[in-house]
Please model this.
Amino acid sequence: MTTFSRRTVLGAIGAMAAAPAASVALAPTAAYAADTYASNTALYADPTLAEGVDYARRYRRHEAIDDSDAASYPFPDTVVLALHGGGIEPGASELCVAVAGYHPATGSAQPAGGPTYDYWMFEGIRASNNGPLHVTATHCDDPVAVALAAGARRAVSLHGCTPAQAGLTDSTAAVMVGGLHTTLKNRMLTNLATAGIQAYDAASVPALGGDDPANIVNRTLTGSGVQLELTTPLRTAMFTTNTRAQRKNTTTTTFWQFVNAVRAALQ
Model:
């Protein structure tokens, strides 16, 4: 985890607050072509939906205290996001928790003593038909997600896609690496490849590129983050029982190889 002073944090927040609104403006309010809801706010306002029945939200924000005159303590500088967890893009929730430094089944630090990061996720928790709960990343306006991203120097978001959406053959297990944090993006590509996971630069597939400044992963203090789009075959290989109830309990070696590679890049 990067160490920087309180003055650095406050200065960066002030600079963000002073930035022109257009630099962090959301996309037009019309719903994304494939989405039922134009934003999280619109979804939450739908009286036919109930939190805890149709969807859930989970987050963790770590306490940060520095009240001494000595050298500054590490300040939480990273947030991990899963905008389409649960049954929307299966596997994203479990990956989000694990990349943040916790075992998805027990909630204990994994590995013990390793760095932990803030996280936020939105999950579809219906038995089926969770697709309509998808809100595209450029339209994410959940207040907790926005606050966590805005207070972080970097963000990582976990998503799911099909091989066809990634421009790959149907059986390809791979991850498309996008986002505006070029240094971290290149580090991810290298580490994932070293771990034996097929990783491609998402710049070759604009729809998965994650390079829109309005994407929640890029609405950080630095205006950048990394978006990871995992194909269905890769996510399927990460669990022996691929259901919402059992994924957290049946993670495979592939799951942890991916998580460890991403965490190594963050460190």
